[in-house]
Amino acid sequence: MKTYPLSVFVRRVLLIRLAGAATVIALVIGVAAFFVQRSQLADEIVDLGRRGVRTLVDNVRATMEREHSDGLTALREVVGRGERPVVYHAGRFVYLQIYDRASRVLAEESATDQPNVRDLKASLDSWPFTFPDAGREEVRWARVDGGLFVYVTAPVPGRAEAPVAYARGVFAVSPEASARMYRTVARNVILAVGIVILVAALLYPVILHLMRRLAHYSTHLLEANLETLAVLGSAIAKRDSDTDAHNYRVSLYSARIGEAVGLLPSAMRVLIKGSFLHDVGKIGIPDQILLKPGRLDEKEFATMKTHVENGVDIVQRSSWLRDSISVVGYHHEKYAGDGYPHNLSGEDIPITARIFAVSDVFDALTSARPYKEPLSFEEAMEILEQGRGRHFDPRVLDAFGTNARELYDRYAGHEGEDLLQELVAMVEKYFSADMETLRYGEESEPATSAP
Hey, is 80 helix, strand or coil? Predict the structure, then answer.
């Protein structure tokens, strides 16, 4: 997941998305306008072809009536007069060919002033003769030497309306008509772009305002959730005759190990919440057991172990805290499977719980307690190594070992304000508490963050 400050989000994401949408919409409308315009031009040309054929038919029928001849004889006579192909405002027929059902060419006429008429005739001759039914025409498009040409084939009906011959010709679209079509397309594209830009310009401040309000409300909600987290953590620390420093240290240790392991931000947030609330269930443990200075007997220890279920019951009541169950409910499991309460082993234990187990034991070993002095770094690391593969995940231990000395020097035994400030910075980094921060995109879980 990518994280942007709001100003960067607006510039990089919102504007790019709006510009991309405008471009796509403009292209779609432009292409649609082009095909609609070309279809309209084709219909116009086909209509002109029909009119040309009708003119030819009318002349043939007039000749048949006047000379009492059959349709084919009259057709040959009309075509033989050498009349020039008809010229229309959208162009003209520069070549016309009449043929019968046997594919014999009866007559043909061409515009002598058309420079590429031979190429057009050759192109037309390369296509097989077709015989459309009465009242139907065939239309094809071609671009020759930069010019736009339409090939039209139409039947020539006789007295009984049945075709006595067929006419096919090449209609040269005039430069004016072609330019008009492209001007229309350009105008429609510009109009579409203008409309989209106008709509985007109107939507931009609205979206920006809503995003700012959303960020504002989200920030206040996050702050309220974090306050709840702090209150719960502090409450159990006070009741357990401890200070908040233990929660601060184990949260920082865990976060640094999580970064070394390669957890995603989503898993880091779970790890931080769970680390801070790991012992929240001790609220339900009686004082005579929780505060007992000596070793617990078997029955008392059984009662103490119920703090895990108590903690799960507490955090699952909050939708925001519920995911911390992966730490709260499993931080006393052991890698070899002899922990509690579920006797899970290996990678069946959530990765966040496996990380916290190292942090919690390391902090306990290196911190002073009423009943013991803190151990040195070397002594603590030796005890952790003794638990490799039994209590602790070897992979997590290795990740911790890469910067364990630095973390020891930085956090071990510390209880000052610097711990709180660093934890606040860690929370801001992974929870994005800044009002001016938004996330964009999706996360994919790599193997390092899988349980």
Answer: coil
Burial 224-241 (b: 16+ CB within 10 A, else e): ebbeebbebbeebbeeee
Residue in this structure with the two tokens 């994401």, named with its chain if needed: 13
**CATH superfamily of the domain spanning 240-449:** Hypothetical protein af1432 (1.10.3210.10)
Query: What architecture is domain 2-182?
Result: 2-Layer Sandwich (3.30)
Exposed, middle or buried: residue 204 (CB in 10 Å: 0-12, 13-18, 19+)?
Answer: middle
- With a cut of 50, list the residues of the chain below it in pLDDT: 1, 433-451
Start-end of CATH 1.10.3210.10 domains in the chain: 240-449
User: What are the tens digits of pLDDT across the range 311-366?
Assistant: 999 999 888 889 999 999 999 999 999 999 999 999 999 999 999 999 999 999 99
pTM recorded for the entire structure: 0.56
Distance CA 362, CA 185 (A): 73
